[in-house]
Design a protein that fits this description.
The complex is a heterodimer. Chain A is an alpha/beta fold. Helix content of chain A is 40%, strand content 26%. Chain A contains 10 helices and 10 strands. In chain A, strands 6-7-8-3-9-10 form a 6-stranded mixed β-sheet, sandwiched between helices. The radius of gyration of chain A is 18 Å and the shape is globular. In chain B, strands 4-1-5-6 form a 4-stranded mixed β-sheet, covered by helices on one side. In chain B, strands 2-3 form a two-stranded antiparallel ribbon. By secondary structure, chain B is α/β, with parallel strands linked by helices. Chain B contains 17 helices and 6 strands. Chain B has helices at 2-16, 19-46, 70-83, 106-111, 128-160, 166-170, 189-204, 211-225, 229-233, 239-275, 286-311, 317-331, 333-340, 348-355, 358-370, 374-398, 401-406, and strands at residues 49-55, 60-63, 66-69, 86-89, 98-102, 119-123. Classes of the chains: A alpha/beta, B alpha/beta. Chains A and B meet through strand 6, helix 3 and helix 6 of A and helix 1, helix 9 and helix 17 of B.
């Protein structure tokens, strides 16, 4: 059953940048096989939390476990188990779409047949034609760049995928295409996906469970349906506004 | 090492496809430096020079049985200047590069045994040709002085009724210079030239130090600014592989750009040498050429090793470039010093401070190869590799994801 065992366990995590407290005693647990949404306004602490999970930042206080491994002590180990897509992630513009995929496959598997196989899987996930994949990515539209970036993140086959604002800045059609890729991938592979978003409709559509974060604190966590019901709201946006308003 | 290969694979593809930058950094010096050399030679010839030659002297004289008039002096000055491409005007005018005035009684004083003749040269401020006129007139006067002094010695010896040698009176001291090698054996003029050329080759390394720093900055900070770095850092690729891969690939591009820059500088000197009928390349032995090539690569690596610790701790392109520039500028002092000073002969304090800078060993490596002192050359080569390795180790240890993601300028 999805969610039975914990893939991510964050307890009382604090992260400061100088005098600014980005995360203030954040605790969250994420079960296996879920699509988990982290929602909140700009500067709420979403990216900071995702960067800690992606092994790029060290927390100042508290404990973080990914697949039972403590971070930051086991960063090298955890990096083999996760794949991360930062917000507005770019591609190497002088490389083709295919080369971008192959490079990432090689970063995980070296110059092996497996890397080639993984890159081919990435090409399939991206949904781009062979002709498009053989063009330099400097010629790509924003939507195409994001499709390759998402494919690059998913193709690795990691059991934990971390996506920071995967559809931000995309038009309706591109965002829909990305959501479709994510849905299909999570259905066919039993992976845990953590994604952050401003877009409550998207989160409602995609996520099994969400956490609302504001000013570095998790306000509430639960399934979108339960939260809407519990707070007697029409949608997740109303839940968030009422909760964020109360706490601020 | 597989991870290092993967990083190099991507970096080389990325850098080699940036044709415009590569052409600007690598191939323009090959075109521009020889062109600069040629234009500087021919531009001098294209610029006309004007000299006003005013003669106030009507006197004449005789010394050592030779009669002279001021017309003889005017003719000699005019012919010499005209041979060097100057137009000589015989009236006072302001629109000239220089004015030469032959004062009254010039020839009488010139041939006198008690007086001195006076010639005035007035240079026009801002004229590049005026210095050339000064040099021509100075040589001419030296020649005239010696000829007149010789005639006077002949006349005086005749009056005194004694036999004299002109040279023993006018040039009583004769200096003979010879050069010996490290073992004390005499060496030829060509051997001596080779050492001068090796100093020039060492100095030419100054041009290979900077292009590679632009590439390493782009490779690290460029990734951050193009938003590809964060995802890369979350992959399992080891940090040593990331830094080593970027430095090695950058050094290969740096080798290409450094080589063309150094070659451009050699052409800068070679082209005029051909114009004057000397083939400089014939004077550079193959071993020194090879040593120069090795030194170019190691100087590129040294530059990268010196700036990488600063680049990986910089928050922005501008900050990384500024800190690289400062580090390289300070370190390249070595190349200027090595042009005039034998570093290994300096007192211990200065010598050991310079030994900490990797470029010192690259420079000494070339010098000792030129002097055929291979053991010393090898020692500096090994020390250079050790310094580079230590600096690379420091870079790997200083690498910090958080610093690079959130780094400020």
């Amino acid at each position: 059953m999805p969610g039975a065992s914990k893939v991510v366990s964050v307890r009382e995590v604090v992260k400061n940048f100088g005098k600014v407290r980005a995360l203030d005693k954040v605790s969250v647990e994420i079960g296996e096989g879920l699509i988990f949404g982290l929602i909140g306004p700009n500067g709420a602490g979403k990216t900071t939390l995702l960067r800690i999970l992606a092994t790029l930042l060290k927390q100042d206080e508290g404990s973080v476990k990914v697949f039972g491994y403590d971070l930051p002590e086991n960063r090298a180990l955890v990096r083999n188990l996760i794949s991360y897509l930062p917000e507005d992630a770019g591609l190497y513009s002088r490389l083709t779409g295919w080369e971008n995929l192959y490079y990432y496959a090689m970063l995980y598997y070296g110059k092996t047949a497996k890397a080639l196989e993984v890159a081919r899987a990435g090409a399939r996930i991206s949904g781009l034609s062979e002709q498009d994949l053989n063009r330099k990515t400097s010629e790509y539209s924003k939507g195409m760049i994001r499709r390759v970036a998402i494919a690059r993140t998913l193709m690795i086959g990691s059991k934990l995928v971390i996506l920071d604002e995967p559809t931000s800045g995309l038009d309706v059609f591109s965002a829909y295409a990305i959501r479709k890729i994510l849905k299909e991938y999570s259905k066919s592979n039993s992976v845990t996906i953590i994604l952050s978003s401003h877009n409550m409709i998207e989160v409602e559509d995609l996520c099994d469970e969400v956490a609302l974060i504001n000013r570095g604190r998790i306000i509430v966590q639960g399934s979108p349906r339960d939260l809407i019901h519990a707070y007697n709201s029409k949608n997740l946006e109303e839940v968030f506004i009422s909760l964020a308003g109360e706490k601020s | 090492m597989n991870s290092v290969y993967v990083v190099i694979w991507k970096e080389l593809k990325d850098m080699l496809r940036d044709i415009r930058t590569l052409a600007a950094i690598a191939f323009l010096p090959l075109l521009i430096l020889p062109l600069m050399s040629l234009t500087s030679i021919y531009a001098q010839g294209l610029q006309p020079g004007y000299v006003a030659l005013i003669n106030y002297d009507k006197s004449y004289g005789s010394v050592g049985g030779v009669n002279m008039t001021s017309e003889d002096v005017v003719r000699e000055i005019s012919e010499t200047l005209e041979k060097s491409g100057f137009h000589v005007l015989y009236e006072a005018t302001t629109n000239v590069d220089a004015t030469i005035i032959i004062r009254e009684e010039f020839v009488r004083n010139l041939t006198s045994l008690t007086e001195r003749a006076r010639l005035e040269l007035i240079k026009t401020l801002g004229s590049s040709k005026a210095d050339q006129v000064e040099s021509i007139i100075s040589n001419l006067i030296n020649d005239l002085n010696f000829r007149l002094a010789s005639l006077k010695v002949v006349e005086l010896s005749s009056i005194a009724g004694i036999n004299v040698s002109i040279d023993s009176i006018l040039r009583p001291v004769e200096a003979r210079v010879s050069v010996v090698g490290a073992g004390g054996a005499p060496v030829s003029y060509e051997e001596m030239l080779k050492v001068y050329i090796s100093r020039f080759l060492s100095f030419s390394l100054i041009f290979v130090t900077t292009p590679s720093t632009a590439y390493i900055t782009d490779s690290v900070i460029g990734e951050k600014e193009r938003k590809t770095l964060e995802a890369l850092l979350s992959t399992p690729v080891p940090r040593y592989a990331l830094i080593l891969g970027k430095v090695v690939s950058t050094s290969l591009i740096g080798l290409l750009t450094g080589f063309t820059n150094a070659l451009g500088l050699l052409l800068f000197a070679y082209v005029p040498s051909l114009v004057y009928g000397i083939n400089l390349l014939n004077l550079i032995p193959g071993s020194v050429m090879l040593a120069h090539f090795i030194a170019i690569y190691l100087s590129v690596l040294s530059s990268l090793a010196l700036v990488t610790p600063a680049v990986i701790r910089s928050g922005s392109y501008r900050a990384a470039q500024a800190s690289s520039m400062v580090i390289i500028s300070v370190a390249t002092i070595v190349f200027f010093i090595s042009l005039y000073v034998d570093i290994e002969q300096l007192s211990d304090v200065y010598k050991w401070v310079l030994y900490l800078i990797p470029y010192t060993h690259a420079s000494l490596f070339i010098k000792f190869v030129a002097l055929s002192m291979l053991q010393n050359a090898l020692t500096h080569l090994v020390v250079l590799l050790l310094v580079i390795t230590c600096l690379m180790y420091i870079s790997i240890k200083l690498f910090n994801e958080e610093r690079i993601i959130y780094g400020r300028t």
